[in-house]
Design brief:
The chain starts with a strand and ends with a strand. With about 140 residues, it is an alpha+beta fold. Strand 6 and strand 7 form a beta hairpin. It has a seven-stranded mixed sheet with strand order 1-2-3-4-5-7-6.
Length: about 140
């Protein structure tokens, strides 16, 4: 079963050791950078992703300071655990978590134009093009 857990002294070092495949490193910031970013941007929440008791990934989301809407800033599954459905399951779980906030009806996500793997995943989950580019990334949205 997939679960989210807070990042604390018990799993911090394991979380920052997680890595994507070499060819994916250009698409996602390191977990260490993301955790540091969340310290400077307290509206961001970082969570570790576990399958049963095995740490498999990391995610970061927030209500964006500028537009006051939910954004999923990071989702990564460690290279060892990719292609097992964890990315899709983690996204579904995160979307459900965000939807609990009835004050909002949209979730945004952005990705590098050549990250076709992310594009296909997001489209499978119902995200659609927002027709914007921000910092060279394509923006998608999920309205609910």
């Amino acid at each position: 079963m997939l679960t989210f857990r807070e990042i604390d002294r018990n799993n911090f070092f394991d979380v920052i050791k997680l890595e994507v495949l070499d060819e994916q490193k250009k698409f996602v910031a390191t977990n260490l950078f993301s955790i540091a970013q969340a310290k400077a941007f307290p509206e961001c929440s970082c969570l570790s992703i576990y399958h049963d008791e095995v740490l498999v990934g990391f995610t970061m989301y927030c209500i964006d300071f500028e537009d006051n809407e939910y954004w999923i800033y990071r989702l990564m599954i460690d290279a060892t655990y990719q292609s097992r459905g964890y990315g899709k399951a983690a996204m579904e779980k995160l979307i459900d978590k965000i939807k609990e906030d009835k004050e909002h009806q949209v979730i945004y996500i952005s990705f590098e134009p050549d990250n076709t793997r992310a594009k296909h995943l997001y489209e499978k989950l119902g995200f659609e093009a927002d027709h914007r580019m921000i910092d060279g990334e394509i923006v998608y949205k999920l309205e609910y």
